Amino acid sequence: MSPGGADPDAALVERLRAGEQSAFAELVARYSGAVMRLARVYVPSTAVAEEVVQETWLGVLRGLERFERRSSFRTWLFQIALNQARTRGERERRTVPFASLADREATDDTPAVGPERFLGADHDRWPHHWATPPQRWDESPERHAESAETLARVREAIERLPPAQRVVITLRDMYGCESAEVCNALDVTETNQRVLLHRARSRVRADLETYFADA
């Protein structure tokens, strides 16, 4: 079960078990985007990833009666998707364990935010603190706050992230998964999950700051 409380999809799962097709359609609409992003880490093309998405949902339908709710539905779903994507990746001869990608990206020395944004190590009061702090997105609500344009830009920025960062920020910030859910679904350590999320958020924020500065 989700560490944050009750499974947010529990009612839909019960409706699906009762045979309601609309419940299945709602779950597909809610999570297919995340499954697609996860699949693209392992397979060489969008077309193959779309097949993984279809296979994942077929796996959900076939295994629904065996779903025992020891984890949330979305954790279970992402585990099915991960297994399907790995299998297709091996078949396409393009598979890299997610944990290996996570290790590689988490230990990459490339800064997520330019070093010029921080004070030097020799600063008398605030060494390594922000010299140019992040801009508040709510300073101009009519331009920025939850606008369709901003959300579209966020999605574009996420799509440009390295694959492991892209998957982690998608699950955490777009789908509201808890850190433990992500670690369990993707088989990554809490430390790497936290580093990947921080780097992803930093890069998306920097992308948006550049966009708004040029607007």
Provide tags for this entry.
Arc Repressor Mutant, subunit A, Rna Polymerase Sigma Factor, Chain: A, 2 domains, 215 residues, mainly alpha, single chain
| Envelope shape | elongated
Name the average pLDDT. Answer: 80
Say what the CATH topology of the largest domain is: Arc Repressor Mutant, subunit A
Kindly estimate the percentage of residues that lie in beta strands according to DSSP. under 5%
Number of helices: 10
How many beta-strand elements? 0
Question: Given the helix and strand composition, which structural class is it?
Answer: mainly alpha
- Please identify which CATH superfamily of the largest domain we are dealing with: Winged helix-like DNA-binding domain superfamily/Winged helix DNA-binding domain
Helix-strand string? HHHHHHHHHH
Low-confidence stretches: 136-142
Can you describe this structure?
The protein has 215 residues and is mostly helical. The chain has 2 domains: 10-91, RNA polymerase sigma factor, region 2, helix turn helix motif (Rna Polymerase Sigma Factor, Chain: A), CATH 1.10.1740; 98-214, Arc Repressor Mutant, subunit A. It is built from 10 helices and no strands. The chain has helices at 10-17, 21-42, 46-63, 73-91, 98-106, 141-144, 148-159, 163-174, 179-186, 190-214. Helix 2 runs antiparallel to helix 8 (163-174), helix 3 (46-63) crosses helix 4 (73-91) and helix 4 runs parallel beside helix 9 (179-186). The longest helix has 25 residues, at 190-214. 31% of the residues are buried.
Summarize the structure.
The protein has 10 helices and no strands.
